[in-house]
Amino acid sequence: ELDAYWTEVSRSVREGDFEGYRATCHKDGVLVSGEKKSSVPLTKALARWKQGFVDTKSGKMKADVKFRFSQRFGDETTAHETGMFLYSTVDGQGKRKEEYVYFQALLVKQKEQWKIMMEYQRSKGTLAGWNALSTK
To answer: What is the pTM of this model?
Structure first.
């Protein structure tokens, strides 16, 4: 089930499906940034990220996100996942940008759907760190 959750997150980013992405987030979710030393409601982060979804959907840019994990545990209704994500974009001029980020996610299952309660983007990662992690 959690693999399906991350597959849906990736699909929504790749297709520029903002509503699909928002549906993966808990309404009271929190984004924590270790780099910025900040904590904000996910709703605020979503508002900031929305233009990227719009640009992806319209074809102005391409976006993708992939996940790899170092630790995954939980039960039937809660999960804590640790790993990295690779967020990549290609702009209209073909310029590619890749961002590796160490992250932790706290998820809850409500009404048969997983939702992210807390996304902790701990720090920047590297290709070597990415390659060291499992693809599942």
So the answer is: 0.93
